[in-house]
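Subject line: Sequence and fold of a protein, written as structure tokens
Enclosed: The protein record, placed directly beneath this head.
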Amino acid sequence: MDSHAQLAMRRAFFGQASTGLATAALATLLGKSANANNDPLRIGGLPELPHFAAKAKRVIYLFQNGGPTHVDLFDWKPEIQKMNGKPVPKEFVGGRRFSTMTGDANNKLMLAPVEPFAQHGTSGAWVSEFLPYTSKIVDDLCFIKSMHTDAINHAPAISFLLSGAQIPGRPTLGAWLTYGLGTETENLPAFVAMTSVSKNTSCGQIFYDFYWGPGFLPSKYQGVKFRGSGDPVLYLSNPDGMSRPMRRGWLDDIAKLNTMKFHSVADPEIETRIAQYEMAFNMQTSVPEMADLSGESRETLDMYGSQVEEPGTFAHNCLLARRLVERGVRFVQVMHAGWDQHNSLTTELYTQCKDTDQPSAALVQDLKRLGLLEDTLVIWSGEFGRTPFIQGDINNRPRWGRDHHPYAFTLWMAGGGTKSGFSYGQTDELAFNVAENPCHVHDFQATVMHLLGIDHERLTYRFQGRDFRLTDVHGKIVHDVIA
């Protein structure tokens, strides 16, 4: 029976392949796609994708772990200012669920924004003085101020936003896109993740590997995490006595052995191993070149801020993100932790904004200057917002905080076919609940996939007897934000 099963697997594999076994197995060394809309740069991906003409080719996701406070950054509400120190009205709380740190939200005191707001650009977008650099690029941004989610704690909420499920185990957005669309480079991973955290912060979040995981997709779609110190990837240099031609010969022989094993058991993870070895060989040359900032002008480096030449910082990672997409990487996930201001609004929020504001704005400006913004989608968001009411003692300003708030938050996008200088959706007068044009996490995911030429209902993967997709059984495209 085992022999028959193996024979059936091999027969199905040969029936689906257009070339010999070795060529098909090695195709995911990121071999050329058969379709790819006749794009000679397209490598890998599904032949039927994109489903329609894409506005964006690649994504840079600036993910702010911890839940940036929409109340203090983007969502200006004069009524909160008037109600500062007064109990939150009961009709806003209702039977809503909050984290255990808040418990019952009734009788919590409203807290006005820590810093003043002002309108900026020809679009008149409201932005807090916390973000002076972002305020200068508002006419390039598309705000969604009516985001809402289902999760109230960090890891489930981040997993939900990135994979469509609160429980880990589903493919993340980057994995879905590289599975469906492939990449434009043979020398770098299709999906790269980088992490950073503000120095001396007391509210950093843990970076779990499933934030850039492939879930049940073949593991070759896993995001490759670049390190924040030393070489971005370990073992880039050959050991003493190992020449590059010798390494090439060894890898060729190992690939032959692995191909023989694949022929025997048809395990897709063997394909992944072959692809990983080949990619590692290519990265020995491509990664040092990509990570070398010596060719960047002083003007460019200064634009990203004083930390740009310090590996492991958000500024450094933003510049690397630009260099990665320039070289054909499909999805770059730049994650920065520390936005969890339960008792540090008046201290660490300043640090978070200082570390991320200038590099975020610089990335948008840099992409625009190079002509890349048009087809590169930049996303800036956290997993949820923060409560309009205070967490802590309102008389103890150094310890002011806000709790998790899933019912309304703000994100922005730039480029990639989104409208510029545009704001979608509104919250109520206390920035508590969505009042106009709600955008659920699944709606946002469907919209991002649409911008990349993907029908979110059609990109599926069969697992354990069911066809799964990023948006589960939900999601409506928000056409109003698309240019």
Notes: The first strand starts at residue 58 and ends at 65. Residues 10-38 have pLDDT under 50 and may be disordered.
